[in-house]
Structure formats: C-alpha cells, structure tokens
Amino acid sequence: MPPATASYLLSPESFTASGQGAEKLSLPMLQSRMKMDPEGHETELLLVYRHFKSTLQLFKQQSALSATSDPAVSKYLGDLAMFLAHMIPFYPLDLAEFPRQVSDILRTNARTLPSSLRCHLSQATILLVNRKIIDPEESLDLFIDLQIIGDRTLRKLAFFHVVHNIRRMNKKHRNNAKNQKLQTILFRILQEEEELRARRSLVVLCDLHRRKVWFDDRTANAICSACFHNSSRVMVPALSFLLGYECNDACDSEDSGSEEDESSRNSQVVVSKEQIYKAQHMGTASSKRKKKAKLQRVILSMKKQQRKSEEKKGSNSYSPLTHLKDAQGFVEKLFSRLRTCNERFEVRMMMLKVIARTIGLHHLILLNFYPFLQKYVQPHQREVTNLLAAGIQACHDEVPPDAVEPLFKQIVNQFVHDRSRPEAIAVGLNAVREMCLRMPLLMNEDLLQDLALYKKSHEKAVSIAARSLITLFREICPSLLVKKDRGRPIDPKARPKAFGEVSVASEVPGIELLQHDGELIASGSDEDMYDAADTEVNHSLGSDEPAFDFEEEDYAEDEDYSEEDGEDYDELDTADDDAIDDNDDLDDNDAQESENEGSADVDDSGDDECKNCVSEKVEDEPRRKKRKLEVHVGNLNAVDLSLRVLKRLSGIKIAKAPTNEDDGILSNEDFKRIKELKAKKEGKHGLSQHGLLNKDANSTSTAFKIPSSEQLSAKRLDPVKLEAYIRSKLSKEEKLAMVRAGREGRGPYQARAAVKQKKTGGLSNRQREHRKMMPLAAKRSRAARTRREKKQLRKHADKQFRGRKAWK
C-alpha cells in the first residue's frame, strides 16, 4: 500500500462516514481520546483494527513478491500494532484475536520482517505480557527464538524482557508455581540439540542465578548439566560461569569508602583501658601522638581482618557447585570427557579446573586425576600455575597420601633444584607449602630440611617461599625441622593427624576462655599494673575506692559476677587499718602456700590457716579491736587479704560459675561473653604484634593460624598466590615506556661547562668552600697535607726517565 493510501485510512472522510467530526486526528491523539471515552470511540477502534488487518495482508503479499518491502508500510504497520496493544485493556472483546495474530507473525515471519517492524511487534508483545494479557509461559519460548535471529537490538530487547519479567515476578514474594513452569521450559530448551537456543537459555539461567533470583538447587544443577552438552559453544559458557562466579562475586562485594567505614564501626574489637591509657598518657608529646596514631591503625587493621573473616563465611565462598546432587558422578563423567575430548587447550584447562574445584569442595576421591596431572607438571608447561593450583585444590585430608605422593615428588623434582630458574623454584616451594597445608603427611624429614636451605637464597621470592614453608611446619610438626629452624613453637610435640583420623569436639569452642577468664585478666601487660599496686595495698585498702581496678569490660558485663561478691569487696574496703597491718605477713605466707597447693587447696587449707592466725592475733589485741574483727571474721575466712590471692579467688569464682549448674547448659550471656573474650584475645595479639603491648614469654599466640580443612576447601586458590614476590620480566615496549616516563619534566641534555657558563646566579658550592672561614686546626692540617703532597712530587721529579744516552 502506498503512503498516500495509508494516510487516507485515517483521513477526515473516513471519520465523517463513521459519524465523527471532520478534523484530522493522529494515532497518539486518538489514543488519548479513546482512553477518556472508550464507549464513544468503539467505531474508530474497529476501523483502525480493520486497517491493521488489511495492511498486514498487503504486507505479506508484497513480501511474497519481492525481497524488499516498503519502509513506509512497515513503519505504519508497527505504529498500528503499538496503538492496538495500548487499547486492548479498554476493548478486550473487540481485540481478543490481536495477541495471537502478533505472536503468529513473530513466530512465522520474524526472519523476513524488517528490523524496525520486528522491534515494534516485539514491543507490542512485551506490553501485552506486562499487562498480563499474554502468559509469560506462552511468550518465553517465543522470546528465546527472537534472541537467535541475528538482530542485536532485538536480542538485547528480548533478553532484558525475560530477565526483568522474572525478577519483577519474584520481587515481593516468590511465586514457586510460575517459577517451576518457566524453569521447566528453559531446562527443556537447554537439553535440546539446537546450539543457539540452548546457549541463550543457558545465558538467561546464569544471569538469574547470578542475580540470586533463581538461587536454588534446581537451577544450579541445570547449569552444571550444561557442561555435558554436545556443543562446545554451550559447554564453554557453563564452565566459565562455574569458574568465574566466585571471582565476580568477590569483585562485586568490594566495599566503597563509606561502606568500609560503616562495616568497620560495626566490627567488634576489644582493647583494654590500660592499653589506651599507655598510648595517650605515657611518654613525650611526640611519642604520645605516634602511639595514638599507631593504636588507631592497629584497631582499623584488626577490624578489617574481622570483616574479611566474616565475608569469607558469607557469599564469597559460595559456588554453584555446592548444590550438586551427585557430585561424584558429575566429576567422573566430566573427567572421562576430558580424557577423550579433542578440544583446544583453554577448554581442557577449564574442565580441569572445574573437576579440581568440585573434588576439593565436596571432598571427593578421584584417584586417576593425580597421575593425569603428573604428565603436565613441568616448568615450561603453558599455564603451569593454573595446573598447580588445580592439583592443590584437589588435595584434602580424605585422599590417601600414597595417591598424591607421585605428583608431589614430580613438583619437587621438576621445580626445586639448583639448576632451575629462581621463578620456578619459588613457584615450586609455594606449591609444596600449599599441598602440605592440606596434606601434611606428604612431607618427610630429609626433604623438608633440604627445602629449608633455600632460605639463604639471594632471590627474595625464593627465600620468602622457603621461610613460609618453615613457618608452616613450626606449627604442624616442628620435629621435622632442624633445631635452629624450629624457633619457639607452641607445642614441640605437635604431630599432624594420621590418615583417617577425625577430631571430635567434646566441648563448646571457646569454653576454656570462659573458664580461665580471671587468669586472662591477670596475664600479659596487666601484670605490671598489679605488681605496682602490690606496693601500695596497705594504703589503698583503707580508702573509699578499691585497691585494685579490674577492667570494666571484663566484669561489668559478666552475668556470673554476683551481688554477694560485691558486698564482700565493700566490707573488705571498710576493714580497720590496724587489723590489716597486723595480718600482712600472714597474708604473704598464705599466698605462697596457696600458689603451691593449687586452686583447690586455697578454699580449704588456706582459709583454715588464716582463721587460726587471725584468732591468735585477736587474743593479744584490745577488746575494741577484737570486737571489730569479730564482725569481719566471716569475710576474712572467705577471701584472703593478699592482692594476688584475691585475684586468683575471683578468677576461680568466675571460672566455676558456668559449671555450677547441674545441666551444664550455657546461656546466651555465656556465649556472648565467649565472643567478647575471643575478640579481646585477638585485640591483645594484634597490639603485641605491632609493638603496642609487651609480648608475654609464656604467650601461646602466633601470627600464623592454620585454617581448617573446611575453610581451605571453601575458598578458591588463586594461582597468583603461587607467584608471589616474583618479578615479571618487562618487554621492550614496557622498558621504553618506563624510560620515557622518567624523562618527563626534564630539559634537553647540555654539557656541564655550558651550564656553568650560562649560570647567572651566585657562586657554586665548590667555590664557596674556598671562601669559608676555616678553623685553625683545619688550616694547619690542610697546610700539612699540602706540604706532604709537594714533598712526594719533588721526590719523584728527579727520577724521571729522560732517554738512553748515545755513548753507552
């Protein structure tokens, strides 16, 4: 139909014949009037609908006769389709066949339609789906087909509609019935042999899973099953999604500055008041400023470490492979395909990584995997660090050491020897350390001592890798090291677990901190404070305030600290000064005896002896003091007057409080207290590492903490970690770029003589030295030096060779 005919369909004559005014109306203006008065414009709607049908029939005839169609007709047909799509809610009966007609056009003639008309009809269909006139289940298959036509604009439009529609459907609440229907359609398309449809279905599933819309086991297993598709163009996106999920999640979860500050404020770090006091009130003004700044840096770094440890427990450690229903079958099937496939090297490397990640994540046993890796472990192998990282991830404590030992020896023999390059030695030592971290039974004494000798290497990467291996075995098994490399281990008799050995927890983790709460208060840097307080105990016990100041964070929140203890302390504070002075010597003797006999004897024998000593003293004192002591004799029997005994008794009371109950069940306050004690212990350890707190000689805290098997398997090993501290060789272009960057801001080259001649300022430094007023001693030494030099010149001047005489 020519454009003139198309415009004639909505001409004033056509509306006059239908009983309307003779003014000319456009489609947007007619649309607005129909929305205001649907019943009064029903005739115009039917007229426009007949125009649409006739125009569509004419367009099909033109398409059958010629390959190209009239762009004006296609544009007009698209406008009519959009107009009717907007009007269908107001005229549902008159336009009941319109959705089916638009869908049929896209299904049958989508490839032959012009790009603009395809987009208009697709937009009309999307509008009908959004208004719930067309069910999403009916249109999902259509939009998957539209994505494989080859039109980039239409592919983006269809993909965005499918994802956005499902996200909007699950925004407020999850509609499981519709989700299952849509998932069934996509899963069916994913299993088809047609490559393009399966790939687009996989892309939709991956995007919905990454956005955590369909974050269930069913979707994850469907994505994993795509690894076995016959087409490599479907298998490769599935493998890359499984491998890149954790990397993308880690990148997306990096906090900005404000979020980092907010999370650091919410983190829990306990630092005692004494440590803050030392940082603010001890030393000169400059040292106090430095200590304050260093304390703030330590607290921020500790909060950052706590935030990272919480993130590791969260979504960063998640992988779709955790949802596998049959992980062992998945690994065996994928490994059999790896051994028989003829794919390119990159695809086989991706399959290898997925297999290793699944083995480590689910603690599977695939004994044929390690000899397969052994063939490719060589320094000149392409992407050898990825191969080593895959082999390390496949190691866990449930694999027999005999199965991994050939691979372990291959790494040592190929990488770590005197003729190998420093880069290869560093990578080999790092790989050995990571494998021993997961399977310590692989290492023997002779091999470890040979590898430890690389700590003297002049290459920084090699020496650091060797020292990290020594540090690991200081914690795991110090007896394998020579005596000078053992350092000061926590437990000299530490041994790795035997194969198959399982440690079963017999108590609540951290209960020992709750039991030894009093001992933790009296240890470390607080010891100096208590020693200093011992010298003034006689003067301070008579005052209104207590002689010793426990930390508020240790006792203010402790639920086990009863009111009876507080009353005892108050009564002790109000005791008579003379009675306390008389009993000082007896208190010291009782403290020494109670330290030797243990905490159990303190309550029995110490109290009896104290009681006898007090009774003997009281008989010789006047009656006034005797009556005063009789009031406090019960308190004197309950606790000792020595400060150290008081501390130990308070620690025993607090330690026995959780276990006094018959049921042995900890309350929420106890778990909260355990959490606080753990945070306080980490805080003291961090301060001692940064030099803000004196390290205790008997302290058992170390800078290196061995992670558990679950923590190692949950996190993916980055191959870059194996190349730490290795200097990469620069190419010629990079070297030239560095040279040019160093020349920026410099003038052209000039000789020094030319620069001196152009100089317009004062004298040079060398000229100024000659004009300086030198001290008398310097003048004399310079004169003596000049005389010596002249004497040496005169001495050699007469012996100069003047030639051979002619007559000799």
Automatic annotation (TrEMBL):
Residues 768-808 have a biased composition (Basic residues). Residues 608-623 have a biased composition (Basic and acidic residues). Residues 83-457 form the SDA1 N-terminal domain. The keyword Transmembrane does not apply. Its main location: nucleus. It is found in: Nucleus, Nucleolus. Residues 554-607 have a biased composition (Acidic residues). It holds the Pfam family SDA1_HEAT. Keywords: Nucleus, Protein transport, Ribosome biogenesis, Transport. Residues 554-629, 739-808 are annotated as: Disordered. Belongs to the SDA1 family. Required for 60S pre-ribosomal subunits export to the cytoplasm. This is Protein SDA1.
